[in-house]
């Protein structure tokens, strides 16, 4: 009995450590995938941690747990996007305009962030995920392929198309100087 | 960035760096960090509590269904059955007459074995 309690305490402690170590990145990835919706990003990240808690005992290795967790996170973000799209369509039936803003949190340059979020919306789900993970989150192509369970060639193709589309959508950003308000993260 | 994708031309690299810098959530402070961890722990506990009642209900329903579907234990012969068996054992009649008394499946088995 004492041993079982000790294992539970140890597992919960490991879980809290895991949440502490990964929450910043998890929320940021979700935020970027969900068009800058801070509340949704927090909720999706929490849901992913909740699901990861169930499988904690199966993963002795933290690296494997982390890979699995980010897969859950991406799935949760996809589910949320689908649900949000349905809700928007339904709302659009009853109101003249889309009442939901892309970003719900005051941001240093909300107009630019909104533009980037809208441009990212034009990508396919696969292209958006690859672009966010590789170019915005700094994963290597190989890490991204493992994370998404896709072939390396597919990841490269998604990345190439995503970049091409975004450069077309945000053409004026090529020459403009970087905003001084924002600092690169990760 | 060039480490991630060495084939990226410099202008594309600058473009990506700009998106990376400008398209990021505002930094979260220690309070938000702690609140997030507490919220996850609370949700884990709430789920642990709520998992048990449906699990117990499902187990009870399964047990009830099995109890209703599966055949019960064979009951011991009643007093009247005991009397019939005793009468059969003590009778002086030809034992073949017992076919009239024994259940049909006993008779079938006996015929199959040609007893």
Report on the structure:
The complex is a heterodimer of chains A (186) and B (115). By secondary structure, chain A is mainly α. The N and C termini of chain A lie far apart (43 Å). Chain A is built from seven helices and no strands. Chain B is mainly α. In chain B, 68% of the residues lie in helices and 0% in strands.
Characteristic terms for this protein:
heterodimer, A: 186 residues, 7 helices, globular, B: 115 residues, 68% helix
Shape of chain A: globular
Number of beta-strand segments of chain B: 0
Run of helices and strands of chain A: HHHHHHH
Q: What sequence of helices (H) and strands (E) makes up the elements of chain B?
A: HHHHH
From the spread of the alpha carbons, the general shape of chain B counts as elongated
Strand content of chain B: under 5%
What is the mean pLDDT of chain B?
Answer: 77
Largest sheet of chain B: none
Number of strands of chain A: 0
| Overall mean confidence score, pLDDT of chain A | 84
Helix coverage percent of residues of chain B?
55-70%
Low-confidence stretches of chain A: 180-186
Largest interface: A-B, 50 and 29 residues
